[in-house]
Design a protein that fits this description.
With 267 residues, the protein is mainly beta. It has two helices and 24 strands. It folds into two domains: 143 residues, no CATH class; 117 residues, Immunoglobulin-like. Helix content is 4%, strand content 47%. The strands form eight sheets. A four-stranded mixed sheet has the order 1-12-2-5, with no helix packed on it.
Length: 267
């Protein structure tokens, strides 16, 4: 299957019903609205699912996102949403899942519709005085956040943490990212709690294949888009190349160790 095909399977696909005339909503502010269609079984630890809209993608910081104050109804197969927004261009829209057992992060994006006419980048939309309402239906697959397996290993650093460390994380990807947006589109699990040297990690994941297990570092006052890759799990038979990890349902794969080099934290 092509990389584009895999992206379509990995992310929710959108049906764009129309971004057009005034639908009876006041022209100020603008609005995006539509249906949320859930597929699969709702995880028991679901706290809520919230709409997010990004003026820029990938975002430089989480506080750049528009985030709905209330969850959509997650107990039905179909829910309805609407969000008032200023006029302007928005580069992405999606759904963010919050659980009751873990701290939510970027790996918990439940739906991120892609635009097949724009090289499968996240779907954008525009609100103007002439076209103040945009209708987008979102398709959310619960399996994305139903993590029934785990990847475990040890991260070893080649020295102490820099004084300007803001966060260090370990992440699992379905594909090896090739461009900035891939770092969110292919992200399947993320843990920002990496501290200490060595550090024993455990990443909850959905059963499946993971092609990139990586350690990231972010310095103080650095935007999210400037994170540094310190190291990744290497193929034991091909050192220097990302290793593939296959996780079965209910399985914990151990021994996925990573060596992280601090020299990679500096441009």
């Amino acid at each position: 299957m092509s990389a584009r095909g895999k992206v379509l399977l990995a992310a929710a696909v959108v049906l764009l019903s129309g971004c057009g005339k005034d639908y009876g909503i006041k022209p100020l502010p603008g609005m995006v609205r539509g249906k949320v269609i859930f597929r699969g079984q709702r995880p028991a630890d679901t706290q809520g699912v919230y709409l997010i809209v990004a003026p820029h993608f990938p975002p430089h910081a989480i506080n750049e996102l528009y985030h709905s104050p209330n969850s959509v109804d997650t107990h039905r197969d179909t829910a309805y949403y609407e969000m008032e927004l200023p006029y302007g261009r928005y580069e992405a829209i999606g759904l963010w899942w919050y659980g009751t057992r873990t701290r939510s992060n970027l790996a918990d994006i439940l739906a991120l519709p892609l635009d097949p006419f724009q090289e499968f980048r996240p779907l954008g939309f525009e609100l103007t005085p002439e076209n103040p309402v945009c209708e987008i239906n979102l398709y959310a697959n619960w399996a994305v956040v139903d993590r029934d397996g785990a990847i475990e290993g040890t991260i070893r650093f080649d020295g102490p943490y820099p004084a300007d460390t803001e966060a260090t994380a370990v992440a699992a990807y379905a594909e090896v990212p090739q461009k900035p947006s891939d770092y969110i589109i292919f992200l399947r699990s993320l843990d920002f709690s990496v501290t200490g040297n060595p550090f024993r990690y455990r990443l909850p994941v959905r059963h499946g294949t993971y092609k990139y297990i990586v350690v990231f570092w972010l310095g103080k006052r650095m935007p999210l888009s400037e994170f540094r890759t310190l190291g990744f799990y290497e193929d034991p038979t091909r050192p220097g190349h990302p290793g593939r990890v296959v996780v079965g349902a209910g399985q914990t794969v151990r021994g996925i160790d990573i060596f992280a080099r601090w020299e990679n934290a500096r441009p």
